[in-house]
Automatic annotation (TrEMBL), chain B:
<dbReference type="GO" id="GO:0050136">
    <property type="term" value="F:NADH dehydrogenase (quinone) (non-electrogenic) activity"/>
</dbReference>
<keyword id="KW-0560">Oxidoreductase</keyword>
<dbReference type="GO" id="GO:0005886">
    <property type="term" value="C:plasma membrane"/>
</dbReference>
<dbReference type="InterPro" id="IPR039428">
    <property type="entry name" value="NUOK/Mnh_C1-like"/>
</dbReference>
<keyword id="KW-1278">Translocase</keyword>
<keyword id="KW-1003">Cell membrane</keyword>
<keyword id="KW-0812">Transmembrane</keyword>
<dbReference type="GO" id="GO:0048038">
    <property type="term" value="F:quinone binding"/>
</dbReference>
<dbReference type="GO" id="GO:0042773">
    <property type="term" value="P:ATP synthesis coupled electron transport"/>
</dbReference>
<comment type="subunit">
    <text>NDH-1 is composed of 14 different subunits. Subunits NuoA, H, J, K, L, M, N constitute the membrane sector of the complex.</text>
</comment>
<keyword id="KW-0830">Ubiquinone</keyword>
<comment type="function">
    <text>NDH-1 shuttles electrons from NADH, via FMN and iron-sulfur (Fe-S) centers, to quinones in the respiratory chain. The immediate electron acceptor for the enzyme in this species is believed to be a menaquinone. Couples the redox reaction to proton translocation (for every two electrons transferred, four hydrogen ions are translocated across the cytoplasmic membrane), and thus conserves the redox energy in a proton gradient.</text>
</comment>
<keyword id="KW-1133">Transmembrane helix</keyword>
<feature type="transmembrane region" description="Helical">
    <location>
        <begin position="28"/>
        <end position="49"/>
    </location>
</feature>
<keyword id="KW-0813">Transport</keyword>
<dbReference type="Pfam" id="PF00420">
    <property type="entry name" value="Oxidored_q2"/>
</dbReference>
<keyword id="KW-0472">Membrane</keyword>
Length: 645, 99
């Protein structure tokens, strides 16, 4: 673990990274309608400012010749200081966090600019930019915080921003329930993260990264395992990993720029960041890492399989995101051979998936917000820029060299083969299979949307308009072009000569090279062959003839299962929702009959008995006088008995 | 002249008064019975003062007389006003204040 040095020079202004977008969000939210005219410009300006500062910080850090000095700590203020609990509010500026800063502010800037065009016809566009700025501020806090509590703060902040943005079209029931679903499922993961932080505090009395990681040996092995699994639970919630993957596809109910920025490029990769950041803990637990790998492998297959069956443009991409994050989780689960690879795939994925989503948004923008790919087809002619940029992103995702995805995914697949015994074959095989399936469903998407015969000419959209597909304005196409450039060259740029892994060394340790059961060269060839094979099968199945506009109802069992999310939602409902309903019903019954019964019973008893007792008040004075006399005699008699006995 | 006779007379008067309060219905008679009981008590107080040779009991008797005089004024006034509204002096007729 590299000890951080105190930040100086350019780095001492790193609080600007958080302050700029937070300021933008505050002005736009408090300013209200007065900021409508220039709100989107302010939103873009703050994030561009943060990006410019991030670049300056990046280059000044690269300029530090001794890699040991590249980990800097900027103490801002004492946040919590209660008894034994001390939490610094500080920023950790190291290669890992700076990489994320550039990804978040860079892709974030592009998507902000894209949103100007995409949200042009939306009422309350200013609020949208306020939420986006809020998200960027929270996400930067998540990656820059120098302790688990600051990370948790950012973690919850991005959860809130995600909730607000998924529910942007709050008048649509599916958007409102998708927002709630995302929030609730994230909460399950957050619980794991919170308990992991409690465990650290309980044992070490601190939650700052430097102290936790330098004293990680003080944990017992059981605690290490517990912490790794709980952190993984947090990562699963935020990153849409099995068994908490169901919220992410539903989150596509939000506007497309949100899907691109939050639910593809940045926020959902926070789980990968969490595990990579906590690598000193994961290094100590091979069992914990095995579970991480299993989750990653299972999720990447789930995502691929379901992606093959969906007809919604954005949901297919969402399941693709689920499966690509599965790759990243698998990579960071591999340990020292994989941390940097996971981050590299995260970066290239950030580029090409954001580009793919923006392309999807551009298509939907031109098609009356239609998302069903069966009602598209042959759109390449009408949206040429979108088609070209989307195809470049597509080639990057399915891993065709020399596009970005090839370098990162191929490296992960090769690393997956390095495990001992059965592990190498199983995880490597799963990763390879996933690559083939990815090529299949992405090619299906490409064919159904952009190629083939137009199927929309005789159709009308839900609001009764005819489709007039058209290319999007420049504010939308330019970000797509820039992201496409990243999808083309990013992978080669990051991987050549171990550029990224060398840069990340002070944060993640040295990238270990191990020889797997299959050599890297063979894996590379196999990956490409499988990708081409998958694409070819998709061409054979969907490329010929006219595809039906209505999706076929009579399909085989695997397709039906995939259409039903592999029964993920049904499983959630059967395991959690319905028992939960029963539990609440039982509690309500207990409350009504038990607690209320006790309270009401006591009241009824008192009321009834006093109703009977009051009959003694007859209203006849003489009977009162008699009772007074008898009482006096009784008292007197008692006195006499006591006195004379 | 033993004080015991006075005490017996006092007990007798008190008992007559108490029985009168309990059994008679006419408010005036009940009232007179109450006076009888008070004076029975006065008699015993004075007797005890005599027995003990102190003035305490006699002073107490004066207090009782003052209270009894005041009570007569208030009580008769109440009986009068009840009689005026209900045309009856029976204590059993004014039984509205009940459950």
């Amino acid at each position: 673990m590299t000890e951080p040095v105190v930040a100086s020079g350019v780095a001492s202004f790193a609080w600007l990274l958080l302050a700029l977008p937070a300021f933008g969000a505050a002005v736009l939210l408090i300013g209200g309608k007065r900021t409508d005219k220039w709100g989107h410009l302010l939103g873009c300006a703050t994030i561009l400012g943060a990006f410019a500062y991030g670049l300056a910080l990046f280059f000044s850090t690269v300029g530090i010749s001794n890699p040991e000095q590249r980990v800097q700590n900027l103490h801002l203020f004492d946040w919590v200081h209660i008894n034994a609990l001390t939490v610094d509010f500080g920023l950790r500026l190291d290669p890992l966090s700076l990489t994320f800063v550039l990804l978040i502010t860079g892709v974030g800037s592009l998507i902000h600019i894209y949103s100007i065009g995409y949200m042009a016809h939306e009422e309350g566009r200013r609020k949208f930019f306020a939420y986006l700025n809020l998200f960027v501020a929270a996400m930067l806090l998540l990656v820059l915080g120098n302790g688990f509590v600051t990370l948790y703060f950012g973690w919850e902040g991005v959860g809130l921003a995600s909730y607000l943005l998924i529910g942007w079209y709050q008048y649509k029931p599916e958007a409102a329930s998708a927002a709630k679903k995302a929030f609730l499922m994230n909460r399950v993961g957050d619980l794991g993260l919170a308990i992991a932080i409690f465990l650290m505090f309980n044992r070490l009395g601190t939650t700052q990264y430097t102290e936790v990681f330098s004293r990680v040996k003080e944990f017992s092995s059981a605690e290490i395992l517990a912490i790794t699994l709980l952190l993984l639970l947090g990562a699963c919630g935020k990153s849409g990993q099995f068994p908490l993957q169901a919220w992410l596809p539903d989150a596509m109910a939000g506007p497309t720029p949100v899907s691109a920025l939050i639910h593809a490029a940045t926020m959902v990769t926070a789980g990968v960041y969490l595990i990579a950041r906590s690598h000193p803990i994961y290094d100590l637990s091979a069992d914990g890492r095995l579970v991480v790998m299993i989750i990653g492998g299972v999720t990447l297959l789930i995502g691929c399989i379901i992606g093959c069956a969906y007809d919604d443009f954005k949901k297919v991409l969402a399941y693709s995101t689920v499966s690509q994050i599965g790759y990243m989780i698998l990579a960071v689960g591999l340990g020292p051979v994989g941390y940097a690879l996971g981050i590299m795939h995260l970066l290239t994925h950030g580029f090409f998936k954001a580009g793919l989503f923006l392309g999807a948004g551009s298509v939907m923008h031109g098609m009356n917000d239609e998302g069903n790919i069966r009602r598209m087809g042959g759109l390449a002619k009408y949206l040429p820029i979108t088609f070209v940029t989307w195809t470049l992103g597509y080639l990057a995702l399915i891993g065709i060299p020399p596009f970005a995805g090839y370098f990162s995914k191929d490296a992960i697949i090769a690393a997956a083969f390095t495990g001992e015994g059965w592990r190498g074959y199983v995880f490597g095989g799963v990763a390879l299979l996933g690559a083939g399936l990815t090529a299949f469903y992405m090619t299906r998407l490409l064919i159904l949307v952009f190629l083939g015969q137009p199927r929309w000419k005789e159709l009308k959209s839900e609001d009764g308009r005819e489709y007039h597909p058209h290319e999007s304005p420049l504010t939308m196409t330019i970000p797509m072009i820039i992201l496409a450039v990243g999808s083309v060259g990013g992978g080669w740029f990051l991987s050549s000569g171990g550029r990224l892994s060398g840069w990340l060394e002070p944060s993640l340790g040295e990238l270990k090279e191990e020889h797997g059961v299959l050599s890297h060269g063979v894996v590379g060839i196999l990956t490409v062959v499988l990708a081409v094979l998958g694409a070819a099968i998709a061409f054979l199945l969907f490329g010929r003839g006219k595809q039906p506009v209505e999706r076929p109802a009579r399909v085989s069992f695997p397709v039906r299962a995939a259409r039903a999310d592999l029964y993920g939602n049904a499983l959630n409902e059967a395991l959690f929702a319905r028992p939960g309903t029963w539990l609440t019903r039982a509690l309500v019954f207990l409350d009504l009959k038990g607690v209320d019964g006790l309270v009401n019973g006591t009241a009824a008893l008192l009321g009834g008995s006093s109703g009977r007792l009051r009959r003694l008040q007859t209203g006849f004075v003489r009977s009162y006088a008699l009772s007074m006399l008898l009482g006096s005699i009784f008292v007197l008699g008692a006195l006499l008995v006591v006195r004379f006995s | 002249m033993t004080p015991t006779y006075y005490l017996l007379l006092s007990a007798l008067l008190f008992s007559i008064g108490a029985v009168g309060v309990l059994v008679r219905r006419n408010a005036i008679v009940v009232f007179m019975c109450v006076e009888l009981m008070l004076n029975a008590v006065n008699l015993s107080l004075v007797t005890f003062a005599r027995i003990n040779g102190s003035l305490d009991g006699q002073v107490m008797a004066f207090f009782v007389m003052v209270v009894a005089a005041a009570e007569v004024v208030v009580g008769l006034a109440i009986i009068m006003s009840i009689f005026r509204t209900r045309r009856s002096a029976s204590v059993d007729d004014s039984n509205l204040l009940k459950y």
